[in-house]
Structure prediction request, 69 residues.
Amino acid sequence: GHTDSDGSDAANLKLSSGRAEAVKKALVNQFAIDPGRLQTDGKGETQPAADNKTREGKAANRRVEFIKI
Prediction:
């Protein structure tokens, strides 16, 4: 999970972790994916995908990414 740069680092880390957990919960509950196959991690604002100085950039940074391991 990721966030934009608004707010404190600690709040953004908590928010991004919660965002990732919410996606995991939806995948488990709605698609019957075994929760043991999924891992979550919160990155906060540390890995922006776009510029945090624009509305569009901030929206792009509020995201969850999937990585196959």
Remarks:
- The first helix runs from residue 9 to 31.
- Helices lie at 9-31, 55-61.
- The two ends are 16 Å apart (CA to CA).
- The chain has a mean pLDDT of 97.
